[in-house]
Amino acid sequence: MPTIDITTTQNVTVEYELAGPQDRFLAFFIDVVIVGAFFILIFLVLLQAWVSELEDSGILGRFFSLLPITLFVSYHLFSEIIANGQSLGKKAAGIKVVRLDGEEPGWSDYLLRAVFHIIDTFLSFGTLAGILINSSAKKQRLGDMTANTVVIKIKFNKRFQLSDILKINSIEEYEPTYLEVRKLREKDLLLIKSAIHRYHKYKNNAHAEVINKLVDRLLVELDLDEKPAKKIEFLQTLIRDYIVLTR
Fold it and tell me: If you average pLDDT over every residue of the chain, what do you get?
């Protein structure tokens, strides 16, 4: 499976699995069905309301010829902004848009991706998008290249699922050490787990330094004074505490 390393704003490198052509086609197909349903609904409503006034002017035909493209571009723009990089199709396929520089994508990034669907998808009948996604190293279409984004899988392997990291049934079975961990978000804990995994998989100075920087950053974020002697154990404890305290 093709993967990509993305360095977050906390200077931690996380390995993601890139969404393949099948994943993106599934998401695209679901989105097309959704937009198609909206188009048919609008078509029927407006046709009923305007047909007598506009049937001789040609305006109605031009309007409905542009409506599918407008709906599709608008749908992708607003759904990805609202759902943080996921249209309904992407949610169903378990994929998501992220920036290559580790920053959160902004509305301008989503706008570029949406507008370039006109070239990637409509003008080339999807051929250009398919060729680029299949052939480019980062599985990017033009919209991705322009917006500096990639599409990744978020259906993590079990080692990346917080609920599967440690089997803790209730808070009565475990006493948390760091109550401050509630300040973090689930994606922060997934990042911590990914850093631990990469440290064990590639034991070198670079990944050891990542762990050191990550621990230092977490000590600041959680307002902890004492620097842990065993950094990996400290990170694993944070994960345990988070699972118990947020369940």
Answer: 83
Which among 145, 17, 28 has a CA at the least distance from the CA of 87? 28
User: Are 221 and 192 spatial neighbours (Cβ–Cβ below 8 Å)?
Assistant: no
For residue 164, give both structure tokens.
């599967």
Q: What share of the chain is helix, strand, coil (3-state, %, to 5)?
A: 65, 10, 25
From CA 238, how far away is CA 219, in angstroms rounded?
Answer: 11
**Listed residue (98, 74, 240) closest to 173, CA to CA:** 240
Alpha carbon distance 165, 160 (integer Å): 7
If we measure between CA atoms, which residue out of 50, 88, 60 comes closest to residue 72?
Answer: 88
Whether the predicted pLDDT of 170 surpasses 60: no
Distances 233 to 165, 168, 207, 237, 247 between C-alpha atoms, Å: 14, 17, 16, 6, 21
Residue 111 has pLDDT above 90, yes or no: yes
115: left (phi over 0), alpha (psi -120 to 50) or beta: alpha
Q: How far apart are CA 144 and CA 100, in angstroms?
A: 10
- Give which of 2, 7, 3 is closest to 209, Cα–Cα: 7
Q: In this structure, how many other beta carbons lie within 10 angstroms of the beta carbon of residue 130?
A: 18
Q: Identify the pLDDT of residue 81.
A: 94
Q: What is the pLDDT of residues 217-237, one digit of tens each?
A: 999 999 988 888 889 989 988
The pLDDT of residue 57 is above 90: no
pTM: predicted TM-score of the whole model, two decimal places? 0.62
